[in-house]
Write the structure tokens for this entry.
Amino acid sequence: MLRLYFFISLMCLVKSDTDETCPSFTRLSFHSAVVGTGLNVKLMLYTRRNQTCAQVINSTVLGNLNVTKKTTFIVHGFRPTGSAPVWMEDLVQGLLYVEDMNVVVVDWNRGATTVIYNHASSKTRKVAGVLKKFIDQMLVQGASLDDIYMIGVSLGAHIAGFVGKMYNGQLGRITGLDPAGPLFNGRPPEERLDPGDAQFVDVIHSDIDALGYKEPLGNIDFYPNGGLDQPGCPKTILGGLRYFKCDHQRSVYLYLSSLRENCSITAYPCDSYRDYRNGKCVNCGIPQKESCPLLGYYADNWKEYLKQKDPPMTKAFFDTAKEEPYCIYHYFVDIITWNKNIRRGSMTIKLRDRAGNITESRINHEPAVFQKYHQVSLLARFNQDLDKVATISLVFSTGSVIGPKYKLRILRMKLRSLAHPERPQLCRYDLVLMENIETVFQPILCPKLLM
């Protein structure tokens, strides 16, 4: 049976390039973008029965759509070159992997493909109207608004919001992936995505200084790396097309990481990115029994907790690595010094396990202030999570390249994992760090009273 299913799926993939047996996302040329295209919305259904071979559906033909299951709509945004979104297939497959649901790709490329952004933006409400007509038919067939989930990318996020408004905020959930900023920034709630557009609205802001929307738009708004420059993206125009879209698209790839088993990105509710970086918000502001919110697909685990807030909204911050799956592992490094004079500077911390794996964290976003007998808790972010740390190294720097070399006299250093608080905490006592010189040592288990 499995072989038969594989053969049928393979035949669909082979045919998709030659006929419409397996419909594919509309692909247009840059010429189409220049001359413009009229709006034509195509809905393509994927289920676990037809994971690789889409079925075109509409408000009169629901096809294999099972109205008793969750239905997730994926709505793309502006397509200035006419190409298909490179992430679409991964998103469809990832959703079907984590849950048995209906996935509907909303292909409005004929309408989104134009070099004039205003033209694409002006069609968003018409796309929402098409989706409203389709969902109405789903409801007639027995579907529930509770089971409808919309994932909107850029302009698609506002389309999802317009659909939600048509149902008075009764849709189950909307996820906005870097909702478009241009033409929407500063607009009133009825003209953009809004927290009241669904029972739960979560938003990832990854490009707030360019193509994305800066202010909160959901019940929980995630700001990776503060919502600005994303690690691994080009910093100058020499990066070509990636320079313009990399930060904006990162929201999609971060969401995709939540559909995989090897990476769960934890975020920290906080008033500002600076407070998060300074370690002021790592307990989530709630009792320990409540876990911090997770980015992406499982963000709605915080739905019930947020309902208790007035208003039911929060901002959450986190950092990422520059490559997939983007996870960062947080540790606190608690340092008590006994210098007579105050020392200000940055700290680089390197961990090494018994197998020789090494991971490093530079804490240099702003100078730490070390005072005699005062504990400074530094939030360290590592690309790897080493279970058994064999050695730790520290480098202290004031940032000065000339003048006297300072010493930092450490009475006690303690390393504790935020992701795994059950792990033994590691300590070291009576260290003297010479500025800009790496000091390597073996930690010992902290006494129980210090944990």
The chain has two domains: 2-318, 329-450.
